[in-house]
Amino acid sequence: MAITADDEPGRADRNDVRRANLALVLRTLRERGPRSRARIAEDTGLTKASASSLVAELEERGLVRGGELEQTGHTGRPGLAYGLSGATYGVGVEIGVDYLSAVAVDLTGTVRLSRRLALDVRAAAPEAVLDAAADLVRQTVRTTALRGCRPVGLVVAAPGVVEEGTGRVRYASGLDWHDVEVGAGLRRRLARHRFPVAVDNDVKLAAAAEWACGVAAGTRDLAYLSGEAGVGAGLVLGGRLVRGARGFSGEIGHLPLDPTGRRCACGRRGCWETMVGLGTLLALAADPGDPVRDPATDVEARVAEIRARADAGDPRTLAALDRVGTDLGLGASVLVNMANPEVLVLGGYFALLGDHLLAGVTRELAARVIAPDLGGCRVALSTLGFTAAARGGAHTALERVFTDPLSVD
Amino acid sequence: MAITADDEPGRADRNDVRRANLALVLRTLRERGPRSRARIAEDTGLTKASASSLVAELEERGLVRGGELEQTGHTGRPGLAYGLSGATYGVGVEIGVDYLSAVAVDLTGTVRLSRRLALDVRAAAPEAVLDAAADLVRQTVRTTALRGCRPVGLVVAAPGVVEEGTGRVRYASGLDWHDVEVGAGLRRRLARHRFPVAVDNDVKLAAAAEWACGVAAGTRDLAYLSGEAGVGAGLVLGGRLVRGARGFSGEIGHLPLDPTGRRCACGRRGCWETMVGLGTLLALAADPGDPVRDPATDVEARVAEIRARADAGDPRTLAALDRVGTDLGLGASVLVNMANPEVLVLGGYFALLGDHLLAGVTRELAARVIAPDLGGCRVALSTLGFTAAARGGAHTALERVFTDPLSVD
């Protein structure tokens, strides 16, 4: 709903009204695509004069640009259609176990640039990792500046437990990091760029990406499960990413599913990760010495090899995938029972091997979900691959612009 | 500010603005208490003329009433203070296993009336239960009408899986109900009262009550666990009750915690309910034939007897409570890891025996929650007792008024 200055109810000053209306125009363009100022006025309930003034300000701030002539009806002059600008973008950086990646996504949702850098993050000192990440961001900014583009924010995806306000990684078992100041470290290194830097959990950001641009884009109630060495969950409920009181939600990998189960790296027994983490699948599918169990080989190549064996009908591989698929469904049923999502998106290696895992997953869900018809939940495989977390970071960095267009110069 | 950037974009008309401003005044009175029209104007940023006109309309609709003279400063004329009306109320009805209860809560949050009717719901035909529930509502309406009060809506709390839109109870194991049309049945029986009737899961409504008026009132991220024959969860995340895509969220009782565990009534093994349901506690604490295991005795009396034995230091009772407390913490850790709530509220029998369960709960949470310091989560015992679900229903019925005051004649 548009707010007009006359009706404006709150203690609001004119800036609040302006901000809300600028945001309304931006969101209208995002949801409905480029259109003339007359149609923007029509869609929002703003007067034509207001719509024109708002569009002009958004154009000045580099958030909107005029494009093609648009003929809206059969009569009348065609209007110039305005759309979101491709020149303003958010940056997402992911700190993975053996890589850093950066993605730039512009306001239209287009990926402008994607880079990936192989790096043994576990072996490197955290300060060296932050140096490399900052370099990656600087390169991204330099490359895109040549094309007249500019960044409005950076959100870093890190594995493990991330403290929301500070951007400190409290604990990341995959990296063996404890209390690493990712937020402060990158803010210091990138100070001269003057855009905000935030840090968030990689699985939460991957869920945000699924919601923004994945197979289940726009679904109001979405659950995301990432399969890598560990397992994490991200939830979008009622159209909002769940963060929890301190940003620590989504820790599902250590579901205690079996008191006499395998010992987990965390020291407990029978954690879900010990049943469905990538290492377990590889151990079930192949003996030690088999190349798929060689940690020196790129993980995607090893997953691809497993996939090739399964496609060729190798019985041991298929049995391993059935076992893991069943246990994946077992743990996933907990999430589906708790959250009643409309869609469960499987990401990470679960997506890459999805068609061999789905039978076990759906069988187990059917047996364990209490609501009828899985509560309406369908299972989908992520198509974002290993870029999901970085893309989610970039989208999250852009959210601020859609909420508060005045935050951009 | 009444309308913020978060609100849905759309075509504004003057009714929308009026509605938003009426709601703003109502919420201001709820949050800050009775006050003069001048102070309402000050608090909301409305002009004095607008504030007066809005208050007059709310008074006409029976939502606000003028009361005492209020002297706001040292100078000037005192103004008449306006507050929420105690004459407009929401009704909550709970269908329990062995009782029906009704609660009327007025706009000020005061419980105007509370009734409880012993009824063996499991043994009765569903139609007879709905007859009795409708009678209970009629009595409530009649009694309060004598005092000049009127209801604006009814929300029924039912155990089990409730379909959101229709109010159909799809499945309630405690009642052995399958596809009972609670919503339609009560709407038909209460048609002449012309207020809306909704049905929701009892645990979700109890969580709503905790959020509205319980020990953790107003907490943005709240997890609620109810302990009865079964266990259910209710979540408030980011200040909103989690419903799930079809209203089926919160099914936590069948967490599969032990593949070789006890057989559950649902047919599966090792469900959390088999470890922490009330029946399990009673079986651990007493031999068959002991009065606390006599299903003919009121459940509250049996829990009180367990409490008395524990307070007296009976070793078997204390050992049973320690066992159940530990397993309660085990399952609760799943919820805390998933949702990262600021507070975990224990309800139902967990609250009544809480001080004997807490040691086990907190020990197990400390061992199993991944986030540092339990992610900031504290554990609290519900003080609402067995009225929680009905109260949550009444509060939920009132929510519509606070969102859309124009919905009331």
Automatic annotation (TrEMBL), chains A, B:
<dbReference type="InterPro" id="IPR036390">
    <property type="entry name" value="WH_DNA-bd_sf"/>
</dbReference>
<dbReference type="Pfam" id="PF00480">
    <property type="entry name" value="ROK"/>
</dbReference>
<dbReference type="InterPro" id="IPR005471">
    <property type="entry name" value="Tscrpt_reg_IclR_N"/>
</dbReference>
<feature type="domain" description="HTH iclR-type">
    <location>
        <begin position="24"/>
        <end position="65"/>
    </location>
</feature>
<comment type="similarity">
    <text>Belongs to the ROK (NagC/XylR) family.</text>
</comment>
<dbReference type="InterPro" id="IPR036388">
    <property type="entry name" value="WH-like_DNA-bd_sf"/>
</dbReference>
<dbReference type="InterPro" id="IPR043129">
    <property type="entry name" value="ATPase_NBD"/>
</dbReference>
<dbReference type="InterPro" id="IPR000600">
    <property type="entry name" value="ROK"/>
</dbReference>
<protein>
    <submittedName>
        <fullName>ROK family protein</fullName>
    </submittedName>
</protein>
<dbReference type="Pfam" id="PF09339">
    <property type="entry name" value="HTH_IclR"/>
</dbReference>
